[in-house]
Amino acid sequence: MVLYVSVFFDIVNVIDTTSSTLKKELSNVLTKNNLSIQSMRGQGYDGASNMRGAFNGLQALFLRDCPYAYYVHCFAHRLQLALVGAAEKQDYVWEFFSMLANVVNIVTGSSKRLSELQAAHGIEVDHSVASGERETGRGLNQIGNLQRAGSTRWSSHFNCVCSLIDKYGSIIVVLESINNFSTSTSSQRGEARGSLKALKSFNFLFVLHLMHKIMAITDLLCRALQSKSIDILNAMDLVATTKELLQSLRDDGFDVLLEYVISMCEKFGIVVPDMSARYMDGIRSVRQRDDISVEHHYHYDVYNSAIDFQLEELQYRFNDNAVELLRLSSSLEPKNNFSLFDKEQICTLASTFYPTDFSQQDMYHLQLQLDHYKIDVVKHAKFQSLSTFSELCVQLVDTGKAEHYNLIYRLICLVLTLHVSTTTTERVFSAMKLLKTELRNKMGEEYLRDSMLINIEREFAEDVDIDEVIGEFYAQKNRRVQLK
215 to each of 159, 220, 237, 281, how far by Cα in Å? Predict the structure, then answer.
């Protein structure tokens, strides 16, 4: 378990991952470092039930001790859950991703097949460049491998879909080679034949390009939420624009997509079904409707359904009390010359979400300070180029204005406890894998913690005097090795 309080703090081994055990260990670490739970104002965890549970989750247990320690479920995890949830609700999308994983496993199953894929793709790229279908330029048309989708990052699924579209013809060549090659086993030929049948179907190609369009819209938000730092305003704006673009795709994008998929089918010799014919799903069931056409099925049962589920999940995942807290916090945002500054929203933020930090008298003085702040700070030349709360906080201290606007400064510090994303914390685990290798598997907790602190918080390590460390090392006992 990692405790990350703005900077890396500690790493603790726990006997189990129940919420009560985690709370006990976190409380012990906080107490050991003279930090009071009553002073906690922000919590950030992933979406596991033992962390975010509304009744017995870790965040709920801390909220019982401190009702203003607001929990913000990591936006990157929210988006991941929204995308996965939408895929699970749509049968055709889930079937597509299952087949996509199968294809990747077959094609990348051996170095020989990868070599065949690269050779086939190289030939395809040469033909496409010669015919003018592909643009040429620095970094374009590189011969790479088929990307594999990761289980924890939805952006990797988008990379996998893009890779499949780019190498679609080459993948078919490799699968046909496996199917026709005499040395292939029966199971290999069977898997290749099944994958070929799926890939060379109108249904697979339609869902492939549909998901490419949907994931292209969500990819910017996905990547932004995984960045090292993202401000509250940008996070909320990207969620809003993602919803708007998805709605626009739903309203106006079907005909364009259908026309493009038909053109791709003609290019690769894939049979295009009669769009006006009665739709048959191939598996007769009570759900079979005899009065719908093929075009109606793909338009409403596949296209609109997939986008609707995505919009529904985004609305559900990004619509809670924490989002309202973050929206009000954006009124203090210094970005674009304090363009979102709103005195009423700032006062609402303080009175509604932090009543124990601002008494009734404090609220009266806060309003007075905001009147001066709007003229003094918002229009001050030194504050015009700021973009984040942390920069604003530092500048208020450097200019001495934090003392004059102490209540506003206090509110800004409280806002800084809210973590839109926990990706910075998760990078601690990546650092731990680099430090605690197989050759250092007996490293103790204290040594591991100190090593991780130096590795992660490198700006602090830069201030350490190496000669002083060596001198202290020598002072402990006589050393046989001379370090200086």
Answer: 9, 9, 18, 26
